[in-house]
Amino acid sequence: MEAAAPPPPLPLLPDFNPGVRRFLDARFRSAADLATAADVEAEICGRCTELEALVSDLSVRILEAATAYSSCREASGSALRGVGDGLRALKASISTGVGEEDEGETEHMQFEQLPALASEVARMEMVGEYAEMALKLDSLVGDVEDAVSSVTGKLKSVGNNSERTHHSAIGYLRNIEDLLALVTTTRPQWTHLLSAVDHRVDRSLAILRPQAIVDHRALLSSLGWPPSLSGSKFSSIDSGKQAEIVNPLFSMTSDLKSKYSESFLSLCNLQELQKRRKARQLKGHNLGNQPRQPLWVIEELVNPISTAAQRHFSKWAEKPEFVFALAYKIIRDFVDSMDEILQPLVDKAKLIGYSCREEWISGMVIALSTYLAKEIFPKQIELLQESSSSNAGCTPYQARVSWLSLVDLMISFDKRTQDLMSGTGLLLTVKDDENWQRVSVLSVFCDRADWLEVWAEIERQETLDKLKSAMESEKNWIARIEGAMVEYESDDFKSPAITTAVQQSLSLLIDRARPIPSVTLRAEFIRLPASPIISEFLGYMLRRCQEAEGLTALADDSTLLKVSQSINAARYFESTLTEWCEDVFFIEMENSSANGEGGCIFEEEINHVKEFRVEWVDKITTVILRAFDSRSRDYLKNKRQWLEKSDGPAVSRAFVECLDYMQGQLSKLEAGLNPRDFVTVWRSVASGVDQLLFACILAGGTKISSGGVERLEGDLSILFAVFSAWCIRPEGFFPKLSEGLRLLKVDKQQLRDGVSTDESWLRQHGIRHLTAAETEKIIKNRVHEA
Q1: What is the pTM for the complete model shown?
Q2: How many angstroms separate the Cα of 436 from the Cα of each of 446, 515, 518, 519, 681?
Q3: Where in the chain is the domain with CATH 1.20.58?
Q4: How far apart are CA 686 and CA 183, in angstroms?
């Protein structure tokens, strides 16, 4: 049997196009692949049909653009020909004008026609510019739409590079934005052109950005992002050991790194373009502070890893410390790659004002805050509500402790994450509430003011529970604060130890409020618990003073000391609150009150404390003056002593006994009362004594002889000696008595009829605090011996 003849050799074909050769090599790798030739042929036919449709569509668009250009050109040419005819007619009228009258009329016509001609020329130039700009923009927008169609996969050709197409589309978009910015600046009246181009570009961007994100996510998935978190150990968080979570950004091969960089830059360029477009479109509109847009590329890193982390978070609903530990470990382990790998790419894309480190931290913080708001805090609220019922599984105290422990974890987490930024010298790009909230998990309270009120109420209850036992302990009122000094004074406030306890409690409360990322909420959080605490402390001091007053009317030394202790506490507490209000932390909150009123948030409390202090200082003064009045009654009623001449020392024994009592009371107050309020007391006592003695002796119609003047001078010298312990010139605090004595010592020859009412004579003799009527009365009651 004859062997079968070999098949005829295949005809030689010309060299294939390299793209076609690659296509065939990819489809026919072995002889078995020849069975799919029909499918390959169908695919090629389909693509050819698509390409033919594309060519047909492009031909139609080119024809439309050419027609539009031709019509614009014809209109421009017609208008310019009209301008030329007008200019030629103008020239002819000028050259053929005859006579002076005709020349005058011609010149008049020239001046009338020139503005219209100039306007027409300018209009034609603008029409030409408009047509040229419209054609440029139409061509660029068409290029963008073609690139977008190619990127979406509908018209993918053999060997298509999607990243290269992305970059070309973004390049066209940048050119369009440059032209639109130029039009906005130079021709803002072309609103229809701007609107039409923006509409077409928005449609392209609505396709381009999602597709770019899809491609970027696919590339991230091929890199192994997000990495596995199952092997994370929290014991290494605070140690110097190497992180156990593998970072795919550091382990990328050169090929993958190049692809990732291109995809990264595409998203960054798209965001930078979007930022420019938004700035142009909102130019001239006062819309206040626009919310800061996060960095898209970092969002694509944060979202998948935060989703993976939440699967672990859900296992630790009863152990929130593990939630914060894992979140911090993720932030810390990847933060270096943000600086070393991604930040140069962001800088290359010219995205101004963005830090990859800050965006990474803020993205993870926002994800954690969202989880806390959805999962953790609602359970805490339920726990607080259930704790008040009889069959609750925990007590209200345990529920409050659980809440405060969660807040402590949040404050600690914020401090550590913010240290990751400040530790490298990086500060927030803008230090305001909005940017601060992006890097603080306490921002959950910014969206839920009711939770902030719950926190403030818990802090108030815990603080008052601790302070009540301290305020009821008498030793805390007897023991003084050692070295309680004000920075700008050297006065010892002699404040009881209880004041330190209240001050420290409020200071801790204020420190708890400092991390809250909102000035308004910080002020509200401090005000809610602090005001009741201060009111409770003030009420306790008031009750102590009222008890002392009710027992002995402040006549006993022990009750006087008790009131002095409360006054000292009020003085020190008032000074502390005032000093706090002068701090920058509180100055920032002055205009943040809900009712819009300025002033320190403690202003009302300071006024209440001051009113309490002033009221009881006045009461102490009144008690001393009443006792002095009662003891000096016999001395003041003895009118005859002022007409008698004393053989012995010109001093009244009864008056000395009154002064001895008053000096003893003031000395006791000096030992127990703070110096500033003691000064107020002795000056008020001096003023009261001055008025009392003047009214009863000098202005009371008492006749005074020369011997009485000597007696009065002796008594007043002792009075002045008592107060010389607290001032240099005590007579200055008894102006009426001093000037009255000066009048009594004036010689009879110096007094003439009516001279005592002469103002110049009164000033000459140093009389400034007495009226003319009082002066005349004192002189009339002066008895001069013959």
Answers
A1: 0.76
A2: 11, 9, 8, 11, 50
A3: 638-781
A4: 84
Report the top-level CATH class of 638-781: mainly alpha
User: Which parts of 473-518 fold into alpha helices (H)?
Assistant: 475-478, 497-513
Residue 456: pLDDT above 60? yes
Cis status of the peptide bond prior to 226, with omega within 30 of 0? yes
Nearest to 481 by CA among 466, 499, 468, 464: 499
- Residue 766 backbone zone (phi > 0: left; psi -120 to 50: alpha; other: beta): left
**Token pair belonging to 117:** 């001609």
Instruction: Name the segment(s) of the chain with CATH classification 1.10.357.50.
Output: 449-483+491-617
Nearest to 673 by CA among 779, 563, 527: 563
Of the candidates 371, 387, 382, 365, the one whose C-alpha atom is nearest the C-alpha of residue 320 is 371
Kindly state the percentage of the chain with pLDDT values over 70: 78
Instruction: Check residue 99 and give its pLDDT.
Output: 46
Closest CA to 298 of 245, 232, 251, 345: 345
The 10s digit of each residue's pLDDT in 499-549 is 999 999 999 999 999 999 989 999 999 999 999 999 999 999 999 999 988
How many whole angstroms separate alpha carbon 458 and alpha carbon 528? Answer: 11
Q: Which CATH class is domain 449-483+491-617?
A: mainly alpha
DSSP state of 639: -
Give residue 543's identity as a one-letter amino acid code.
Answer: R
Q: Find the angle CA(212)-CA(252)-CA(348) to the nearest 5 degrees.
A: 55
Please check whether residue 193 is in contact with residue 134, taking contact to mean a CB–CB distance below 8 angstroms: yes
Find all residues with CB under 8 Å of 347, minimum gap 6, and list them.
none
Q: What is the pLDDT of residues 235-276, one digit of tens each?
A: 444 444 444 578 888 888 888 888 899 999 999 999 999 988
- Any idea what the Cα angle at residue 538 is, between residues 536 and 542, rounded to 5°? 115
Mean pLDDT of the chain: 81
The three-state DSSP-derived secondary structure of 34-102 is HHHHHHHHHHHHHHHHHHHHHHHHHHHHHHHHHHHHHHHHHHHHHHHHHHHHHHHHHHHHHHCCCHHHH
Q: Which residue has the tokens 């009864």?
A: 654
C-alpha 94/C-alpha 638 separation (Å) is 126
What's the half-sphere exposure (Cβ side, CA atoms, 13 Å) at 757? 7
CA angle 137, 140, 142 (to 5 degrees): 105
Phi and psi, residue 485, nearest 5°:
-120, 150
Cα separation of the two ends of the chain:
186
Contact 361, 327 (CB under 8 A): no
Tokens representing 584 are 């920058």
Helices 449-472 + 396-422 axis angle, to 10:
110
Q: Taking the CB of residue 48, how many other CB atoms lie within 10 A of it?
A: 10
Write the pLDDT tens digit of every residue in 281-308: 888 776 555 667 889 999 999 999 999 9
* DSSP code string of 283-303: TT----SPPPPPPHHHHHHHH
Q: What secondary structure letter does DSSP report for 586? A: H
> Which residues does residue 492 pair with via DSSP β-bridges, in sequence order?
485
